[in-house]
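Thread: pyridoxal-5'-phosphate complex, take 2
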Amino acid sequence: MQAITHADGLVASEAAFLDAHPSFRETAVLDELRASEYARLDARGEVYLDYCGGSLYATSQVEEHQRLLRETVFGNPHSANPTSSAATALVQRARAAVLRYFRAPESEYECIFTANASGALRLVGEAYPFGPAGRFLATSDNHNSVNGIREFARTKGARTAYVPLGCPDLRVDDEVLLGLLDDRDAGCSNLFAFPAQSNFSGVKHPLEWIAPARERGWDVLVDGAAFVPTNRLDLSVWTPDFVAISFYKLFGYPTGLGALLARRDALRRLDRPWFAGGTVVAANVGGDLVVPLSGHAGFEDGTVDYLGIPAMEIGLRHVERVGIDLISRRVEALGTWLLAGLRRVRHADGGPAVRVYGPATWDGRGATIALNFLHPDGRVVDERFVDMLAADHDISVRTGCFCNPGAGEAAFLLSPDALTGVGFGDDMILDDFITRIGMPSGGAVRVSLGLASNFADVHRFMAFATRFRDLEDVPQHLPPRLAC
Ligand SMILES: Cc1ncc(COP(=O)(O)O)c(C=O)c1O
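Output below.
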C-alpha cells in the first residue's frame, strides 16, 4: 500500500479510503476482473482515466468474438442464403438484446444501429420535421454532435435556443428550463435535447425533465453517450423519444457501433431526406418511386456492421454479468474520494493547486471530473504541459474542450457578449482564437472513471496531482493547439 502525503500533512492510503467508503469492498469482484480481464493495464503500468472517451474491452470479449468469426461463416444479411441468414439471426438477436438491456418495451421502442452516437444524433437531426415556428431547444451543456442539430433546425426555419448553465455547478435551473419549455407553439414540432450526463463536468442532468417536456408537446432527445457506461438507463421508467449511445463507451469493443433508441411513434414522425440501399420496400428510376421501409430498417443505410454487431452483443453480456449497478457504486466511491483529495492539494501558502469545474461533491454527478491545475498565483497551468507530464507518468487523461463548447464557456465564464462576432479568420489557428476570446488555456483536464478503474489508478492520479504544488511556471514553446 502506498501513501501520499499532501501539503497539509494528510496521509491518504487504501486503508483510509476503505474506512471512508466501506461499501467499496462489495465491488471487490471488479478488482478480480481487473486482474484477469484487464491485466494488460497493470502489465504495461498504464493508468487509464479516459473512460468517457472510450471504455476498455475485456480480453474475453475479443476472444469470444474471434472464436465466433473463426468457427462461423457470415454473409451480407441483405439476402436469404444460409450465411446471410446466419448473420441476420445474430443481428436480430443483438437488436433484441439492446432493447432488453435498456428495459425498453419492444412494443414502444426501436433499436437502430448506427456507426456511433453522432450517427444516431444526425439521424434525428436531419429527419426531424423542423419548420418555421417550431423550435430546437438544447442545454448549453451538450456535445457538438447535439449542437450540430441546430444547423438542420435553422435550415428549415425553426428557432433555436440554449438553456444556460449556472456557475459554479454547471447545472440548469429547473425554473428557467420550464419557462423555455413553455415558450413553444404546440401545433409545431419542437425538439428538446440534453445529455443524461455531461461529458465535460460529469453533471447528471435530471431524467425527470423528460415527462414535463413531453407533456408540453416537446419531443425529447437524450444523449446517453456519457451516462450509460456507468449508470442504468431504464426505458421502462424514463420515456424519452430518442436516445443516442456509442457502444465502445460502454465496453470498449467493437468501436464503430452505436444505436438510436427511438419511440416507435416518434420515429414515424421523422422524415428522412434521402433513401439508400436497405431502407426501402421499393424504388425505381423510371417512375421516380420510393417506398421507405418502416421501423429500424428505414434508418439503417446500406449494410449494417454485421460482424461487429455480434461483438457488441458479447460486450453487452459482459456488462450484464458484471452489473451496471455495481459499476455505478464502484465509480461513486472512487470519484468521491478523488474529488475530496483534489480539494486538498494545496500550495505551500495554502492556496488551491486544483480547480474542479462543476459540482465539487458527488451529489447529482457522475465519474467525469474536469479540472485545471493552478500555479501559486492562481494562473491556470497550461493543459498541454499537463498532457506531457501525464504521458511521462503513463497516465491517460483527456485535455481540451471535449467537443462541449457550451460547458466550457460556462466554466471559464465566457459571456455570449465576449463571444458574439468573434470570427475565426483564415490565417488563424485555434491558439489565436483561444487568445481572442480570453480563455485562460485550451480548456481543461478531464479524468473519467469506468468499469475497470481501481483504487491504484486514482491513487496514482492523486500522486501525480501533487506534482503541481508550488509549480511557478511551465516550459515555453508547447506544441500549437490545432483542434478542440
Ligand atoms: C455526451 C457525448 N455525446 C456524444 C458523443 C459522440 O460520441 P461518438 O464520438 O461516439 O459519436 C460523445 C463522445 O465523447 C459524448 O461524450
